[in-house]
Amino acid sequence: MIASALNSLIKVANGQIPMNMFHSSRTQDNSEYAKKGLQAFGIDTSKPFIINEKAFHFDSEGKIRLGDK
């Protein structure tokens, strides 16, 4: 599930899918699993981070959002 969430996040960063598709997964919370994967790679998810020149951050509800707060 972590790999699937990270794969979807990379697709957002590459412009292959819109952010709302990342959040529309009915089978899992992509933000939660992506956060676990990012943290495993040593990314500080309490701050904005960049993937393929696109900024992302986690909002107060724990959802990944585009932009840097």
List the helices and strands and how they pair.
Layout: H1 2-13, H2 19-23, H3 30-40, E1 49-51, E2 54-58, E3 64-66
Antiparallel strand pairs: 1-2, 2-3
Helix pairs in contact: 1-3
Number of separate strands: 3
Helix count from the secondary structure assignment:
3
What is the residue-mean pLDDT, rounded to a whole number? 93
General shape: globular
Residue ranges: pLDDT <50 for 5 or more in a row?
none
Largest sheet: 3 strands, antiparallel
Helix content: 40-55%
CA-based gyration radius: 11 Å
Task: Report the structural category.
Answer: alpha+beta
List the secondary-structure elements in sequence, H or E.
HHHEEE
Report the span from N to C terminus. 26 Å
Strand order of the largest sheet: 1-2-3
Roughly what fraction of the amino acids lie in strands? 15-25%
What does it look like?
By secondary structure, this protein is of the alpha+beta class. 41% of the residues lie in helices and 16% in strands. The chain contains three helices and three strands, in the order H-H-H-E-E-E. A hairpin with a 2-residue loop joins strand 1 and strand 2 (54-58). Helix 1 packs across helix 3 (30-40). The longest helix is centred in the N-terminal third of the chain and has 12 residues, at 2-13.
